[in-house]
Amino acid sequence: MKKRLAWIGAALALFAIVLWLFNRPQAAYGMTAFEGDGLRVQIADSSDAAKVMEETSFTVSVNDKAGKPVSGAKMNIILSMPNMFCGEYEATITETSPGVYRAVGVPTMRGKWQAKLTLSENGHKSVVAHLFKVV
Ligand SMILES: [Cu+2]
């Protein structure tokens, strides 16, 4: 009897873990979050993997500490490969809705890349490096 209860307990625990795994909030693709300098910033991939020599895009959201969207944020995004010297490519950024920006760039090689976001808001510079994969 005791053994059976233990099995039921284990099954319930497993069930709870599976439920948690499927229901926890998660970004669809890679996402990097930053909080500091009075800002909350997120950079997320728009697809699961970028393709070499094709446009790839990222969604950047910028909010203040209170969660209010920061419109017209001064920023740039440079795409490059960490530890390589194969070039730096500036992404084109457009604000698609208040505080939400779309950045588009073209990675030139396969491998591990970073999108380095530099925000110039509130009189200081915040830098957020978001890693992504190019296939
Ligand atoms: Cu490279």
Automatic annotation (TrEMBL):
What is the designated name of this protein? Answer: FixH family protein
Q: Which InterPro entries match?
A: Ig-like_fold (IPR013783), YtkA-like_dom (IPR032693)
Q: Which residues form the YtkA-like domain?
A: 37-117
Supply the source organism for this entry.
Cohnella zeiphila
Q: Pfam families, from UniProt?
A: YtkA (PF13115)
Q: Which Gene3D superfamilies match?
A: Immunoglobulins
